[in-house]
């Protein structure tokens, strides 16, 4: 009885072996690890942030797709296609088309040398970047920097796209499908999360004047952050590296004036009438998140003006904001929000600025641009934030309108002309000095090593543009860059303080998302048709082997025939041979 | 039987490791490879022991030992690589080649088993003994020779595979001829 049961069990095992195989194979397949990547690139995701409740950038991060290439391949609204395109080839219309087609992903190859791009392509890229930052999409958009390996992958995709695109007959297409190579891109980034502990840091440095009470201080303000579609690629040379550098240089120059005690020592003064420590204090403000509607400035103002105990700023007569000073080499625009009355310090300063420009760099023009504030939610210049708090403020910039350059990854250090920046800083410094001492002779206040120097501007610029300064990246608690920025400012000023803005949890004006960079892995893959053909080939091979084993006696006989005929002459074992071959056949 | 055969390559591979240590000072990698291949001669003895323990008639002995040995070798050497590698997203011809190679070496193993079995027989004509021995030794060093040839003349893996197939088929045919005299 036991034996019977055993037999039954054995039979069951034998008959259901294939069932087990079907059960076990997927398990085997799923637990086996995936192979290592052939090519890995670091990739930067398009920015994602919320400003005043509306979202910008992209929320997508998932990428696990076969690729197509643009331009060249037709745009198919498919959830399985990812498009790879060079930044120089991509136009705004193409980008918009891709988004409306709801493609599964866009990977943009950023050229290695950004500073060499010029002319129309530059404009086109800047236009595209604006489109990217003003839109919101769920399509994942990635930037990868051009390297040899990236180019290889691009070539592979291009070749397969070309072979597919031109193929006329169905058979040809099929052949290309079988023969060609595809590339599958897989990104390592998880879904982006809100950076809950993000904070925006603003640094204030003060040079304290001789007056006992710090009345009528002058504020020089700029934002130090930069912006571009890819957080890690925003070095922001002009916007607003130039402003930050100019501010630091001004602090350095004026620190000489403020280091002298009493009046008349004149150590920092080349001009006859200018000397000694000025009565007015100068405040330097480097605010964060300037590209996000001047959130850092906003917070600073709330802390300084709205609080009753610190009333320094309410007495200020002059706020000068510096922004993008090298966009136009020979122009300086003074942006104001309302007409300037005669006799105010602001008016004097602007006049001084014009005089200084005429004295130092006659080719430079200084123009006043008046522009009403349109909406509070999207200010175009930093001074408008001050203006909203009823503080007289101007922005000095070299661009006439809030320009396209402001948030571009083309804006690298090489974009900034150091000498030009130094010259403009010199103009501002002279105008400021003349306004401080209230003299009519403008343009002779600083000389020699005490003045604005090209070397100092250059080294400051190098420091500021040494790393991407996107607001997300600087949002950490103890950010090294902000710390060192504060240290630099502390070297030139009497006291520095840090203003921290933490976004409100419930009603945040500004929300950052993490996952700005990750790696994209490129796999060489074969199309699905290839798998089918390969399976058929393997099946036919196995069939052939099966037939060969099944009919092994034929092979055996063919091979042993001669020998057996020879040996039959001697030992007559023909019988045995044929017997064996039949046994092989049975097996 | 399968289990019995499975255990034999294990000491073989251990001896491989020992040889690696012992011949660390051998500068010429070719010599080292030669010694490593020579270790495979021990497999012949292992195969002989395996054959002597398998009951049954000649052809079943040979088939069992050969297939068992081949399976064991496959599991120990190629199985993991193919399993892990071929699962990857990237397609690579290497694994297809490896599978073909496994098929060829299966033929080789059955052949070796048959040769060892022939050697143990007493009714083989004395004139065939050298042929059997030479075939067995060629079988051992065949892999090494083909590898050297492939490396030296820079031929692609497919051609090398075809060469391997042809040589193995030729050796197999010779083996069948000798085998058919006694079976």
Automatic annotation (TrEMBL), chain A:
InterPro entries in the record: EF_Hand_1_Ca_BS, Nicalin, Peptidase_M28
Family classification: Belongs to the nicastrin family.
Signal sequence, start to end: none
Keyword Cytoplasm: no
Membrane topology qualifier: Single-pass membrane protein
Keywords in alphabetical order: Endoplasmic reticulum, Glycoprotein, Membrane, Signal, Transmembrane, Transmembrane helix
TM region positions: 17-37, 528-549
Domain of life per record: Eukaryota
Predominant place of localization: endoplasmic reticulum
Location of this chain's protein in the cell: Endoplasmic reticulum membrane
Pfam family, one: Peptidase_M28
Domain called Peptidase M28: residue spans: 215-430
Entry keyword annotation includes Signal: yes
Official protein name in the record: BOS complex subunit NCLN
Automatic annotation (TrEMBL), chain B:
InterPro entries with a match to the protein in the record: TMEM147
Membrane topology: Multi-pass membrane protein
Location of this chain's protein in the cell: Cell membrane; Endoplasmic reticulum membrane
Keywords: Cell membrane, Endoplasmic reticulum, Membrane, Transmembrane, Transmembrane helix
Entry keyword DNA damage: no
Any matching Pfam family: DUF2053
Predominant localisation class: membrane
Membrane-traversing stretches: 98-119, 131-152, 158-179
Assigned protein family: Belongs to the TMEM147 family.
PANTHER family documented for this protein: BOS COMPLEX SUBUNIT TMEM147 (PTHR12869:SF0), SMALL SEVEN TRANSMEMBRANE DOMAIN-CONTAINING PROTEIN (PTHR12869)
UniProt name for this protein: BOS complex subunit TMEM147
Taxonomic source organism: Orchesella dallaii
């Amino acid at each position: 009885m036991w034996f019977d049961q055993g037999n039954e069990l054995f039979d069951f095992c034998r008959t259901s072996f294939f069932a087990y195989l079907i059960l076990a194979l997927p398990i085997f397949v799923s637990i086996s690890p995936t192979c290592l990547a052939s090519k890995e690139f670091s990739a930067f995701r398009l920015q994602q942030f919320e400003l005043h409740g509306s979202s910008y950038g992209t929320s997508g991060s998932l990428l696990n797709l076969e690729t197509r290439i643009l331009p060249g391949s037709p745009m198919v609204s498919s959830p399985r296609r990812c498009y790879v395109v060079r930044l120089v080839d991509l136009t705004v219309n193409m980008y918009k088309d891709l988004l409306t087609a709801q493609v599964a992903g866009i990977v943009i190859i950023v050229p290695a040398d950004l500073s060499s791009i010029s002319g129309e392509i530059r404009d086109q890229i800047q236009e595209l970047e604006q489109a990217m930052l003003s839109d919101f999409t769920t399509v994942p958009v990635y930037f990868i920097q051009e390297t040899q390996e990236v180019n290889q992958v691009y070539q592979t995709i291009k070749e397969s796209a070309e072979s597919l695109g031109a193929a006329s007959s169905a058979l040809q297409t099929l052949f290309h499908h079988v023969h060609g190579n595809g590339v599958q891109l897989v990104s390592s980034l998880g879904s982006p999360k809100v950076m809950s502990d993000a904070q925006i840091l603003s640094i204030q440095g003060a040079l304290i004047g001789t007056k006992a009470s710090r009345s009528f201080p002058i504020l020089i303000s700029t934002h130090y952050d930069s912006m571009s579609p890819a957080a890690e690629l925003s070095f922001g040379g002009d916007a607003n590296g130039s402003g930050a550098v100019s501010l630091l240089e001004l602090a350095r120059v004026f620190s000489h004036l403020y280091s002298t005690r009493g009046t008349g020592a004149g150590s920092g003064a080349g001009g006859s009438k200018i000397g000694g420590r000025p009565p007015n204090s100068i405040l330097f403000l480097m605010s964060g998140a300037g590209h996000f509607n001047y959130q850092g400035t906003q917070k600073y103002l709330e802390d300084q003006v709205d609080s009753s105990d610190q009333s320094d700023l309410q007495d200020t007569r002059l706020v000068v904001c510096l922004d993008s000073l090298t966009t136009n080499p020979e122009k300086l625009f003074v942006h104001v929000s309302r007409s300037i009355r005669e006799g105010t310090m602001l008016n004097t300063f602007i006049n001084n600025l014009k005089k200084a420009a005429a004295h130092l760099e006659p080719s430079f023009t200084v123009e006043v641009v008046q522009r009403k504030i349109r909406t509070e939610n999207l200010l175009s210049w930093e001074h408008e934030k001050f203006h909203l708090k009823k503080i007289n403020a101007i922005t000095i910039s070299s661009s006439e309108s809030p320009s396209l350059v402001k948030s571009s990854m083309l804006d690298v250090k090489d974009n900034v002309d150091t000498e030009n920046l130094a010259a403009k800083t010199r103009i501002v410094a002279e105008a400021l000095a003349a306004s401080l001492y209230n003299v009519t002779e403008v343009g002779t206040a600083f000389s020699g090593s005490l003045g604005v120097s090209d070397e100092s501007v250059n080294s400051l610029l190098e420091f500021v543009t040494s790393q991407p300064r996107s607001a997300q990246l600087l949002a950490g608690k103890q950010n090294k860059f902000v710390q060192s920025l504060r240290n630099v400012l502390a070297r030139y000023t009497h006291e520095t303080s840090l203003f921290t803005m933490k976004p409100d949890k419930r009603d945040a004006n500004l929300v950052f998302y993490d996952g700005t960079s990750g790696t994209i892995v490129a796999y060489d893959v074969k199309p699905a048709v290839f798998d089918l053909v390969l399976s058929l080939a393997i099946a036919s091979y196995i069939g052939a082997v099966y037939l060969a084993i099944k009919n092994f006696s034929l092979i055996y006989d063919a091979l042993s025939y001669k020998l057996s005929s020879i040996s039959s002459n001697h030992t007559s074992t023909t019988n045995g041979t044929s017997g064996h071959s039949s046994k092989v056949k049975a097996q | 039987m399968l289990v019995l055969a499975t255990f034999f390559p294990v000491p073989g591979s251990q001896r491989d490791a020992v040889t690696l240590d012992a011949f660390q000072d051998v500068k010429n990698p070719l010599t080292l490879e030669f010694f490593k291949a020579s270790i495979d001669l021990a497999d012949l003895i292992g195969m002989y022991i395996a054959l002597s323990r398998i009951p049954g008639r000649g052809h079943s002995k040979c088939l069992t030992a050969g297939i068992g040995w081949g399976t064991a070798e496959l599991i120990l050497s190629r199985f993991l690589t193919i399993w892990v590698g071929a699962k990857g997203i990237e397609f690579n011809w290497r694994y297809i080649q490896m599978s073909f190679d496994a098929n060829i070496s299966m033929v080789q193993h059955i052949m070796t088993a048959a040769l060892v079995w022939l050697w143990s027989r007493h009714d083989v004509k004395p004139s065939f003994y050298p042929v059997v021995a030479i075939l067995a030794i060629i079988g051992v060093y065949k892999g090494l020779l083909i590898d050297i040839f492939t490396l030296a003349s820079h031929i692609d893996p497919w051609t090398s595979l075809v060469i391997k197939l042809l040589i193995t088929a030729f050796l197999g045919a010779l083996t069948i001829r000798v085998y058919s005299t006694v079976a």
